[in-house]
Amino acid sequence: MFIVTAKEMYDIDHYTMQTIGYGNLLMENAGRAVAEKITKIISKEEPISVFVGTGHNGGDGYVVARTLWNIGYDIEVIQVGENEKLKPEVRFHKQLFINCRGTVHVAVDDETLQHVFTNKKVVIDALIGIGLTENIREPIATAISLINKEAEMIVSVDIPSGLPSDEGNLSSIAIQAHHTITIGAPKMSMFIPSTEDFYGNWDVVSIGHSPFVFEKYTNRIMITKELFQQTMPRRKKSAHKGDHGRGLIIGGCDNMPGALAMAVKAALKTGRD
Ligand SMILES: NC(=O)C1=CN([C@@H]2O[C@H](COP(=O)(O)OP(=O)(O)OC[C@H]3O[C@@H](n4cnc5c(N)ncnc54)[C@H](O)[C@@H]3O)[C@@H](O)[C@H]2O)[C@@H](O)CC1
Ligand SMILES: [K+]
């Protein structure tokens, strides 16, 4: 599995949409794949509020809302931001949701947001994805703080809104998710101590990107248990520890011997002499 920066993900999406020719199928795929995961986490008995922004992360949110609504979930959408700011693809998916008789509330400032924000226990967060720039502005900042305060279950789409995708610290405020369903590939900030806890439990959904496109734009690979096992040489059942070479570990530090201790332990566990 590849790990991407925001820039790499944009390049991968762009190539997939323009050169391979997926066009706006990619957003439909993304929203549907996320919705499928959500059915495993949230039951139909729970009323769900989907908070969407005006960018493409919000477009994913509209597809998630429509997909769940059409299979019998109790869904409402709260759009944080003016209709005029909706990107064309987002406007398209908003209209599909409305045509399916879905309900959308539009909140353009703190006041309308406070007004619509009552009893939002289960929230899908599609306010901002990898397109975050600078410190969080209003009314998104208020939306994030209300969601964090009130909601008992928060599922973020792609990344928790307000969190940087790459290395870097939190600029102001971010969604503290219980689950995050990330699109295409894990993002760098999932592995950075100052940001990883915001993700809660995370999962990755595949939306139609080809592996060669990932290889074209990134070379950062996540070593999963399966990948690790594939790279290990096969040992005969009768093998002796001396049959597989000897390991030499050089390192150490007077007051921080942890890395050395772990390397030795790993060597022992893999059967080194
Ligand atoms: N067609 C596509 O391009 C695809 C996009 N995808 C989704 O699109 C996302 C990226 O979309 P975008 O590039 O449109 O960006 P986002 O939707 O992540 O963010 C842009 C939106 O956030 C707002 N925003 C940014 N910084 C802000 C700040 N500091 N304070 C308040 N508001 C702020 C912007 O005004 C804009 O409305 C991904 O995370 C993913 O969820 C996926 O659906 C795959 C396909
Ligand atoms: K989000």
UniProtKB/TrEMBL annotation:
Signal peptide: none annotated. It comes from Paracerasibacillus soli. K(+) binds at residues 57, 125, 161. Residues 224-273 form the YjeF C-terminal domain. This is NAD(P)H-hydrate epimerase. GO terms for molecular function: NAD(P)HX epimerase activity. Binds 1 potassium ion per subunit. Its cofactor is K(+). Its EC number is 5.1.99.6. (6S)-NADPHX binds at residues 56-60, 129-135, 158. SUPFAM superfamilies: Ribokinase-like, YjeF N-terminal domain-like. In the C-terminal section; belongs to the NnrD/CARKD family. In the N-terminal section; belongs to the NnrE/AIBP family. Keywords: Isomerase, Metal-binding, NAD, NADP, Nucleotide-binding, Potassium. The keyword Signal does not apply. Residues 9-215 form the YjeF N-terminal domain. It catalyses: (6S)-NADHX + ADP = AMP + phosphate + NADH + H(+); (6S)-NADPHX + ADP = AMP + phosphate + NADPH + H(+); (6R)-NADPHX = (6S)-NADPHX; (6R)-NADHX = (6S)-NADHX. It holds the Pfam family YjeF_N. The keyword Isomerase applies. InterPro entries: CARKD, Ribokinase-like, YjeF_N_dom, YjeF_N_dom_sf. It is an enzyme of class 5 (isomerase). It comes from the Bacteria. Bifunctional enzyme that catalyzes the epimerization of the S- and R-forms of NAD(P)HX and the dehydration of the S-form of NAD(P)HX at the expense of ADP, which is converted to AMP. This allows the repair of both epimers of NAD(P)HX, a damaged form of NAD(P)H that is a result of enzymatic or heat-dependent hydration.
